[in-house]
């Protein structure tokens, strides 16, 4: 059984050898270790994959021991994830289909190792795609007046299906504080600009008007402040004076798909950690 | 003799065939033609290179005829540049040497076909590099109190040497309106961010604090508004959580050199046109 | 009506002005012109888009006049394509679905302006995807013994549906001379390496074994020599020692999709010309 | 005092915890650890940086203990490098100055932390640059007849100055087996193509003739087989039909400089390990 440990704590000497010795003595063979120290914040981060031959029986014991012997003395925040778990991912969409298609194809081919209990949309247009891939589709319209009720429905579905994280695949509504608080650093958005340039609405139009020579896309965890959450992944592509806004949008779609799917993949593989509104992305 | 025509005018039918027929009838063979229409602004742009076998005698006549027969009826703004002209480029620098070195090496190898009458700096540090490449170096300190007098000295040098355009190779002073008015779309700056993100001071620090995964550099023509002029060239490179601000700066230096030298090369080869605070960059 | 002219001929003075005058006098307004001279081969290339207000009546007359007045004297090879034509594209696939999905999504969203009369496959696996997008699917198995008969069936379908060009979307069979001769520079392949490196079978394995730090994908027109036809488009992405062959394959899929769809788009928009086993790609 | 350990050995459980415990018990604080397992070859690689407060006294003792307690039982090959050491880098050049300039500027600005005891060239052209940067320059002509004698002179200089590694900064001679054997994985070359495409002479001409849309540069350790050694770093840039061979060469120069300097920097910072003709590049 593979177990992936994610750890962060105040930086201090001896953490690596203490943790690796513990894993070793608990019957685990370390197959991957990556660590990072944020010198400014004086915080230590580690991602460790161990292969445990007889983990099943001892699982709870190891977790208990780790908490007592390591986590408490080092003031760690930590989590452990097992190789046989598939996280449950909810998809929120509106009318654009490219990111939805991209994620569903990766899901159906097995490249993206998640369960997708349902797709929520404030519009009806993408219902057919959900049907193609046999995913339940819930149409929850959002208007100025029903925003709170709509959110209740969303939360109910998320809870019922024990969703682990949410992907906003070009969902054209601003999600509320309540959802963000329930899923801290667990809502992944794709913004169609090279943030922090062109946050907010109509970034391709803004980029066109500014006359940039490169456009981008940014995937980030959603926080209270719009388009200002911790960046997971970005990418860029060249444009020139020959490209109209519609060309920016077309080229941008390919960027959005790639950047969002990479971010989702990183999250699913437990390769992201968040601290001080920034991410550590393990390789 | 090669002659390069740069033209822009209100878009209307027949411009290309009229201009190409004129060139043909004036004894020129068109070896390159690129054109662009800005549909929003309804403006036509053209860059045309003609090879004239007996141009020397007829030069002034052709210019006169072009003005009368073509430019006036089509309400064109136009210029023509001859293959035997080397534009005069003044360099403004402060303390960073990487962009200065980069341009001087390209100049001395013949890759960059300009004359460099002098280098101006508000500091003394880079005098030795000027000496290595045998370029006159003028140290004109700039303080809050002498700003206007310093500018007078700069302008005097620029005029005396009939400078065609100015390159701010990491010059750490804001140039004044007066200089900008004298050299409209003829002052090239390099800004060490992916504009419009992180305009102003300390962009690498700002990028680091935002936790971006890609940094950039932008070369643009200087206008009144800081870091908001027409963009000539941009490029980007990846960073990650392992990079400190000092790594951003080091990686950024390589970007700045490349982006600035490409922008200068495009300007020197008359491949840039400016309209509505945006550039058309011919290939 | 928009008409796009593609022209190549021996380089000589006066071509541009002659052609542009002809278009002008035939009632066309030139909205785009790009030209290239291959100095080595002394060949002139041009792509010209004209907007004709009353073209429908005069179409055949203009073509006839162009042939007589321009093409014959200048020894041109030329073609003209009208804005209301949608080229017919046949898709050949095997078992990999990523390129097929990518093209079909672009097709169904209208981004890719073609008709797709059918999909041919030597396997059955992708039949369901064809069904999702309501495209006829022909399963034509290919074995060592039936190769010639299979090809007959393919050709028959291609002829019946008056197919304009063929896209091999990870079709895992070598197409025969006969097909290539029927569709010269009209069969587009995607090869999963940065050609000419790693031509032939298993390029990701070869790249892995060589220890490259960058992998690529190449789309090209199919010629007799395997993976040696005129290159339309290439792109690359970084890899490192942490990536296994399976990671190369996964990263490569995203490259393959993008590179193939860009190449197909260029072909559909008549932006490619072929000469001496190389392409001119207009912008 | 910072000490960097580079380790490789047959993969087996417990290495990480054993090594980290040793470092910890020897008074070192681990500030960086990266590890990699080559599953095919079943080899474990590790790079570890430790901060030792009282290392100076104990240095030899720690090395001795490490050898005895860790390296021997685990059948390790290992080396340790101290923060106060600057490796001695010899530069071999011919007539092209761009890579030489690039490395010398990084050296003189302190970005590249090496000593450069001398530059060797088979030509005289770059002597002035050596003088600018105050580096001894040895002109050792190489002809078919004197190749062996020339090599003797080179080796004598290398030995006298206790050179640690050699950089071939566009040195246009094939280095001999004798030199390679003396400096295994310590001679860094820059090849002006995206290897393995276009190995050997005139790669830009070959790339031009093939009609590629992207060109590259590759830095690698020199081995017996020409341009076939372990790749350290590669990069690519776009070209198109408008670029002549001379444009490939000009664009390529910028690639060569960047790729070579990155590779040298990685080597100097002990971030490269070689195994089975491939590199592990730590971040």
UniProtKB/TrEMBL annotation, chains A, B, C, D:
Alphabetized GO MF terms: formyltetrahydrofolate deformylase activity
Catalytic activity field: (6R)-10-formyltetrahydrofolate + H2O = (6S)-5,6,7,8-tetrahydrofolate + formate + H(+)
The organism of origin for this protein: Muriicola soli
Listed name of the protein: Formyltetrahydrofolate deformylase
Lineage of origin: Bacteria, Pseudomonadati, Bacteroidota, Flavobacteriia, Flavobacteriales
Alphabetized UniProt keyword annotations: Hydrolase, One-carbon metabolism, Purine biosynthesis
Entries under InterPro entries matching the protein: ACT-like_dom_sf, ACT_dom, Formyl-FH4-Hydrolase_C, Formyl_transf_N, Formyl_transf_N_sf, PurU, PurU_ACT
Residues covered by the ACT domain: 4-77
Active site: 227
Pfam families recorded: ACT, Formyl_trans_N
EC number(s) reported in the record: 3.5.1.10
Gene Ontology biological process terms, A to Z: 'de novo' IMP biosynthetic process; one-carbon metabolic process
Pathway it works in: Purine metabolism; IMP biosynthesis via de novo pathway; formate from 10-formyl-5,6,7,8-tetrahydrofolate: step 1/1
Similarity remark: Belongs to the PurU family.
Entry function: Catalyzes the hydrolysis of 10-formyltetrahydrofolate (formyl-FH4) to formate and tetrahydrofolate (FH4).
Gene name per UniProt: purU
